[in-house]
Write a structure and sequence with these properties.
Blueprint: H1 5-25, H2 28-83, H3 90-171, H4 176-189, E1 194-196, H5 211-218, E2 225-227, E3 234-236
Parallel strand pairs: 1-3
Antiparallel strand pairs: 2-3
Bound molecules: zinc ion.
Zinc ion (ZN) binds near residues 205 and 230.
Length: about 240
């Protein structure tokens, strides 16, 4: 390998590194994790609304229950009074009996309303169970994605590390100022700043050399490295 031919290897490794770094930046797991996080935020917001609705129903149900209990206690007290012998007038006894009946009716109504609220709560309870199951699935999926992402990152980082050291070894075979020149040219020409002369491909540049230039190159010795007169890329003749 002539000094300059090492540049082709440096360029090949730079291209490999660009690809590996691009892949590292654009690993699909990262986008999937982001969309999963968005789904989770939505799920949590919906679950919070359901939970609030359920809490409100629960609060009302407890109110009915407490009121029904109060009425029951009051009716019991009046029943005790009715039968403890302290009420002697039949008129008073009838009035007390009416009041007890009324209290028990009201208690029964409240208990029914409480049951209706419990029935209303049923679908909300089911929704909460489903949300919890979905959250569990999402957590499992997130764990799997994070593991896959870490594995892919480690893979690519390993590839990058070895390409970086291969590149350093290849660059060490080329004069430092040529490497610098190539690095500047790479900014302009991208992944093919340096081309290997190939007579069969019009010289090797994206735009074919003129017949005269091609003929000149055919007669140049191996190891020649010159800028292309047409496009300015570095052309290297290996053999
Ligand atoms: Zn050219």
């Amino acid at each position: 390998m002539s000094d300059m031919s090492g540049l082709l290897e440096v360029q090949r490794l730079d291209n490999v590194l660009d690809q590996l770094r691009y892949k590292h930046e654009h690993l699909p797991e990262r986008a999937e994790l982001e969309s999963l996080a968005a789904d989770r935020t939505k799920l949590n917001a919906a679950a919070k609304r359901t939970e609030e609705q359920r809490a409100e129903l629960q609060r009302r149900e407890r109110e009915f229950e407490n009121e029904a209990n109060d009425l029951e206690e009051k009716a019991s007290r009046l029943e005790a009074k009715l039968y403890d012998g302290s009420v002697t007038s039949p008129k008073e006894a009838t009035a007390l009996g009416e009041e007890i009946k009324h209290l028990k009716e009201r208690q029964g109504m409240l208990e029914e309303q409480g049951i209706e609220l419990l029935v209303e709560m049923d679908p909300l309870n089911e929704q909460m169970v489903r949300a919890e199951a979905a959250r569990g699935e999402m957590e499992a999926k997130q764990g799997a994605l994070e593991a896959a992402l870490a594995a892919d990152e480690a893979d690519l980082e390993g590839g990058i590390e070895s390409a970086v050291s291969e590149r350093a070894a290849a660059a060490a075979t080329v004069p430092a100022d040529s490497v610098e020149l190539y690095e500047k040219m790479r900014i302009t020409y991208g992944p093919d700043a340096v081309v290997e002369f190939d007579a069969g491909k019009g010289g090797g540049c994206p735009v074919a050399m003129s017949a005269v230039e091609l003929d000149r190159w055919k007669h140049l010795p191996s190891g020649t490295a010159e800028p292309c007169v047409d496009c300015g890329r570095m052309v290297i003749k290996l053999d």
